[in-house]
Amino acid sequence: MQWKLAVSIVLALSATGVQAADPLEGYWRTAVDDNGNSGVVHVQPCGATFCGTLVAAYNAKGEKWQSPNLGRQIISQTTNKGNGDYAGRVYSPDRGKTYNSKLKLQGNALKVSGCILGICRDGGTWQRVR
């Protein structure tokens, strides 16, 4: 009888430790910026919010290049608002500015937009790469 209790406790503890990943997590190819560049941003949990780091960069010819922004946090302080809506901050390398942003997730597409001091910008649609 004790072994049944022990198995039940182990199963209960292992089940509580498993959490489903948020749909925003993963790798996203950004839209092309004003300079024709794009990148891949790895989004993952950062405490209670999400952040995303630039892990690959591509120039206007689509060639991989060593952007000075590699390793930079592009997405920060981002929270899930439900129904595919997220709010947080997104850094725009081509403008050198961080925008208060809205992100809308629809399947493998992420629509990004943001504002700073009343000036708003469409960040385009990012595509999930994995």
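[next item in queue]
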Amino acid sequence: MATIEVGEREVRVRLQPIERFFSLRGDVTFPREAVASVTVFERGLDAVHGIRAPGLGAPGVRAVGIWRRRNGKELVVAKRGQPAVRIELRDEPWGAVVIGADDPEAVAAALR
């Protein structure tokens, strides 16, 4: 499962090897000041919108990879039954990241 590390100046999303494989990406880092908003979803897959390209998408089960929308792209690592945090970004190549988390409230609090 991907993890979110919140530092004083930057946020890093660390992907597991299988997640890197399906998303064709490595870890993602962005400045904390780029965080526009943070939303917690009890069902992480509800936070996923757009078209998968590239990635793994098993509807209702798992979403790993890049999801594209008109307003940009999103990094997604979410699965059924797991809450997630959706981090909207500004002035970054990523419009948002959606990452499953065991304690999304703690992640959201650290980012606010």
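[queue empty]
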